[in-house]
Structure formats: structure tokens, C-alpha cells
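Possible regression after last week's pipeline update?

I re-ran a chain I had predicted before the update to compare outputs. Posting the input and the new output here so someone can diff against the archived version. Not blocking, just want to make sure nothing changed silently.
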Amino acid sequence: MTAFGSSSAWRFSLARRPLPILAGLLLLGLAFGLAAQYAAARRLFVVVALFDGAVYGAAAALVLRGKAEGKLALILGTAAALRLGALAAPVYLSTDINRYVWDGRVQAVGINPYRYVPTDPHLGALRDKEIFPRVNRNNYAPTIYPPAAEMLFFVATRFGGGVMAMKLFLVAVEALGIWALARVLRLAARPPETILLYAWHPLPLWEVAGSGHVDAATVAFVALALWASLAGRRGAGGTALAAATLTKFFPAVIGPALWRPPDWRLP
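New output (post-update):
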């Protein structure tokens, strides 16, 4: 009888306050995901990620059905809390962030990051015991990242020369993208709560705040390009799209969708 009563209370609570409960479940998944990463328990992390995906799917369904009106503060607050927590993740899912920090250091001393592999004697003075040994492909591959990404790496390392400084910088860049997406929703006359579809998605959470991937900048620049183009600022839209493309090449594919010929400002 007690078990039945508890189950009924849970269903009643979920029906009355579904979004806060789903937010709590995402935060719980974050805690288990961090524990799995620190324990190098890859299979457990996959299970946690699938759980996060299911919770996110339920939250997205609520938003798309118009069941999240007036919950914008909860949505943004949960998104911020998730990212602050994920910043504590170890360098586990990817080691790319070490290359970002390294490239920033190389540029800081006036050396072209495309010129030498990290093990080249010309870069010997930059080696340390924390970043250099963890730079992937350090003995045969110069950097692969496009110019705008390299500029961001340089700027990020001016705020600190380690992994956490890079993560914080990229999360701040992603926040700019979320702000721009909110402006896009406003111009498109969509409910502002729809921002949940990006802000609560587990993939950017773990890949940006957790692993510190430069895709945060791609998201930000593409969102700015969409916002500027919808607002009729074709030149600004073209500039933002160029920055996105010079961070990761694939955003170029949205160029034809944003261009309104014969207006040549965006191209």
C-alpha cells in the first residue's frame, strides 16, 4: 500500500510539475556522468548519456507541445547549472582541448601554428609537463584547425594557459550563441522557452562544457549569422557566417539559404 501510494504521489507530482522534475533528473545525470568519467567507466557513462537523452526528449516534447510557458527562468537556470557542473569533467572523452591550449601558446610567442609539429625543436621552449604530453598527434601532425578557431585559441590563452581557462572561454562563447538563438526565436515569433531544445541537449553540455570543444564557437557564429540575416543585416550576417566557416568549414552550406539575391552584402 505504501509503495502504491508513493508511486501515485510520484505520478501526480510529475503531472503537476513535469519540467522542474526533468531538470532535477538532468542534474542527477550530470552527477553520475562526472562520477563515471572520473572512474573511467566508459560503459556507465554511455548508460548515463542515454538516460540524459531520454530525459531531454521528454523535456523537448513538453516544450513543443506548449507545456513550458512561463518556465524560461527555470530553463536558463538549469542550462547554466548543468554547464557549471560539467566544467568539472576531466579531459576524458577527447584530448583536443590540449591542442587548443598548445596552439594558443605557439601563437603567443609569434610563431605560425601551421608551421611546426609540437615535437619540432623550434617549439622546445614551450613544452611543459601538463599540456605538451597530452597534445594528440604531437609528433607528426601540425594543427588542423581553421584560422578563426586559431584566433580564438590565442584569445583564450590570454586569460589563462590551462584547460580550465579554455573551457570557461568556450562556455562564454556558447552563452553568446544561446543569446543569439533567443533573438532568432523572437524574430521568428516562436516561444522563448523553445531555447530548451539547444540549452538542455546533452551533446553540447558534455562536448563544450565537459570536453571544451571549439564547436561552441561554430554554434555562436551560426546563431549570430541567422539573427543578423533575419534582422535584415546582410553584411553582419555574412561576417558571422564567414567566422563560423573559418572555425569549422561545414557552416558554409547554409550560405545559399541566407542569401537574398541580388543583394551581394552577405556573400
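Follow-up from reviewer: compared with the archived run. The first helix runs from residue 2 to 16. Marking as no regression found.
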